[in-house]
Amino acid sequence: MAIGAGSAPPLAVAGSATAWLARLPAGLFAMPVGIVGLAGAWRRAAAFGWPVAAVVGDALAAFAVILFALLLVLYAAKALRHPRAIAGEFQHPVAGALMALLPLSLLLFVVHYGAPRAPGWLALTLVALVLQGIVAMRVVRTLATGELPQTAVTPALYLPPVTGGFVGGMALATLGYPGWAALLFGMGLASWGLLEVRVLNRLFEGPMPEQLRPTIGIEIAPPSVATLAAGVIWPTLSGEVLIVGLGIAAGPVVAVIARYPWWSRAPFGIGFWSFSFPVAALAGAVIEVDRRGGWPPVVAGIAIAIASLAIAWLAVRTLSLLVRRRLLPPAPAAPTMAAGHQPSTGNPQ
Fold first, then answer.
1. pLDDT tens for each residue of 294-313
2. Considering Cα of 105, then 108, then 114, then 119, what sign does the dihedral take?
């Protein structure tokens, strides 16, 4: 799956008028994921008595719901009209992992809007967790059987088992199931540990292929989301405990910044939304530490300002691509599979 869309051809291509629909990637769901994550950070900031915080949080969350509904309708149309494209996307080593963004969106909406012991929210959570589990099993199977090409090892692999476990735990804690929430949190930690060795080893070997470089933003996600999730699942945790998570998160942040010279040269595309939820979660974690540790509110203000500016920049660049009809990526070839394995015949786009 092409991650950067900067070199994508216009949507009006020769052939079928619905060709753009077949190329609609699941990676677009990173937009509502990042926006609702930022909405959660603003809602937490309301605890400082900032009158605008709750209003901004509610507006961002409402916009995320509308955007998600639109993308869901389009993706459902793709599934109905181009089922082979969906199957190929699922089988693709990178695009398949990004399909976890759809259930991740649902889980974040549960965190934001859910009410304790509400049957409807619980049903939605279970559906999202099942979808997340299906995608996670696909990633684990590909890794465990040695089918994953070395060129396809990216931080995007964290999404289904790691981020899904942490956010799933947050959703269950919101609904009043702390025991099950802790179980999912533990599964997320275990998955993070198993994947960290493989992903970091690949990143230390040198730059990823240019089309995959925008996924580097997801490297920030595991410690940031884990810290935020711990604060939600165990609301009595002190700021001194949560600050350990921020210390761990500082490493990936520095590593991503250090690699700026090579990932910044990739053409801008929807893949750069990989930064949105991690920076929003990091801002939310800083706010939780700030509230519980007695830090000056200005620290939280700086964190949420940085996250808001980053996501606003992504939104402006994305609108520019949309206006120029260059939002969707082209249909790429799948990465070369490892020796002894046949490449997938499914076309992810």
1. 889 999 999 999 999 999 99
2. positive
